[in-house]
From TrEMBL:
Keywords: Hydrolase, Signal
Native source organism of the sequence: Aureobasidium subglaciale (strain EXF-2481) (Aureobasidium pullulans var. subglaciale)
Keyword field contains Signal: yes
Name by which UniProt lists this protein: Carbohydrate esterase family 16 protein
Biased composition (Pro residues): 23-42
Ranges for region Disordered: 23-45
Xref: CDD domains: fatty_acyltransferase_like (cd01846)
Length: 376
């Protein structure tokens, strides 16, 4: 649960630069390496959320509830302003998505703007949703604008559409699965000249827009260990030659696995350093509180310790529940879905997402090992 303030970082850096000149305050030099700084957990949490009433979530199919289905069943039209996504018992994880479990476990209002298939920006990695013959609605062009419109909207009876008090509402962004995946960066389908840092810039731009609208509590969920999923995995670990989401996957699955591993770890390393940079050094978000939530670490922990998370009869992290042809037809679901980390070649299972929800509630509680907290 590391917690950092600018003061603490400056204190550490000045202590470090003073060291060679003035000698260590503690044991003498010859006694060994300098002792590490005191554990950040000894400092009061900078997160300091007193009450958690509402979650506003942005993302893709790892978060989407019913929003893409609305587009699909309304000829590509967006839901009207003030539309609250209803619970979907057949979301991309085979059941309800994690924000519904945050609602169930924490009693929070959930305003879910995530859209399956979404990327951060269609100006960087547009991906076509064939059912509506258009790009999947993206975070930049659709999700955040839809939230901003709803946040200002009152129903005809005078009730505000959203209940989002500044001091008890958390805004989460969990995006990158599609941006970094197929028909996007991994197979070089981005708009010519666009690079992965453009996607990362896009994510921080969304925080800036939300901040400008008054939001103050943010969770940035880093990217998942996609190299562990059947779609991008190693052949020896259940990796597939082709899936319904990527029927024309290149033949060298080992190479795809390696490129995905490099991509997600590099992006997460950027998040790790850029998040404190924007908050503490660039001071882009005065008065705001951020938690950088380590979804990569959490899902990897599920992968390595399945029985701690999966409660079906025979936990498995390489197989998956719902088997379809590469055309997405003739799907057959395994019994005992809570045994699986993956619902299908690309999506975590519902039981995995219950775990996401529990971890998310801990993160919002200000004391999670899966988060690093920063305040400005
Ligand atoms: C669906 O949308 C397309 C493209 O916007 C439009 O041409 C078509 O008329 C619409 N169909 C219906 C039934 O509204
Ligand atoms: C006002 O209208 C909204 C949307 O129809 C509804 O959900 C809400 O319960 C209504 N509020 C009151 C106080 O009637
Ligand atoms: C994937 O393709 C390789 C090479 O063609 C083949 O040997 C292997 O059996 C295939 N794996 C699966 C799961 O179909
Ligand atoms: C597949 O890619 C891996 C990793 O890049 C490489 O070691 C291997 O030789 C490739 N296999 C083939 C058949 O080209
Ligand atoms: C697994 O645990 C969840 C609660 O986290 C529960 O809803 C579900 O029924 C359990 N599944 C099985 C197979 O026991």
């Amino acid at each position: 649960m590391p917690t950092f303030t600018l003061q603490a970082l400056l204190a550490l850096s000045s202590a470090a630069s003073a060291w060679p000149h003035f000698g260590p305050p503690g044991p003498p030099l010859h006694s060994g390496p300098p002792s590490p700084p005191p554990p950040p957990s000894s400092k009061p949490s900078s997160w300091n959320l007193k009450k958690f009433t509402s979650l506003v979530a942005f993302g893709d199919s790892y978060t989407d509830d019913s929003r893409l289905s609305y587009f699909g069943s309304h000829n590509g039209s967006a839901p009207p302003v003030g539309w609250i996504s209803p619970a979907n018992y057949h979301s991309a994880d085979g059941g309800r998505p994690w924000p519904q479990y945050v609602a169930q476990y924490a009693g929070a209002n959930i305003y879910n703007y995530a859209v399956s298939g979404a990327v951060c920006s269609n100006n960087i990695t547009p991906r076509t949703f064939s059912a509506i013959n258009a790009d999947f609605p993206d975070v930049d062009g659709y999700e955040v604008p839809a939230y901003l419109a709803d946040s200002k909207y009152s129903y005809p009876n005078g009730t505000n559409a959203l209940n989002v008090p500044v001091d008890s509402t958390v805004y989460s962004i969990f995006i990158g699965t599609n941006d970094l995946g197929n028909y996007a960066f991994i197979d070089d389908s981005q708009v010519a000249g666009k690079v992965i840092p453009d996607y990362i810039d896009c994510v921080y731009e969304q925080f800036s827009r939300l901040y400008a609208s008054g939001a103050r509590y943010f969770v940035l969920q880093n990217v998942s260990p996609l190299q562990l999923s059947p779609q991008y995995g190693l052949p020896s670990k259940g990796g597939l030659n082709a899936t319904q989401y990527w029927p024309e996957k290149p033949a060298n699955t080992t190479e795809v696995w390696g490129r995905m591993l490099e991509t997600v770890t590099t992006v997460n390393d950027v998040y790790k350093y850029r998040t404190p940079f924007e908050i503490l050094i660039n001071r882009k978000y005065p008065g705001a509180h951020f938690a950088l939530m380590d979804m990569f670490g959490l899902i990897t922990d599920m992968y390595n310790n399945p029985s701690e998370y999966l409660n079906g009869t025979n936990p498995t992290v390489t197989g998956y529940v719902n088997h379809c042809t590469t055309a997405g037809t003739n799907c057959v679901a395994a019994s005992n879905p809570d045994s699986y980390l993956w619902y299908d070649p690309l999506h975590p299972s519902e039981q995995a997402e219950r775990g996401f929800a529990r971890a998310f509630i801990d993160v919002v509680g200000g004391n999670s090992k899966w988060a690093t907290y920063y305040s400005a």
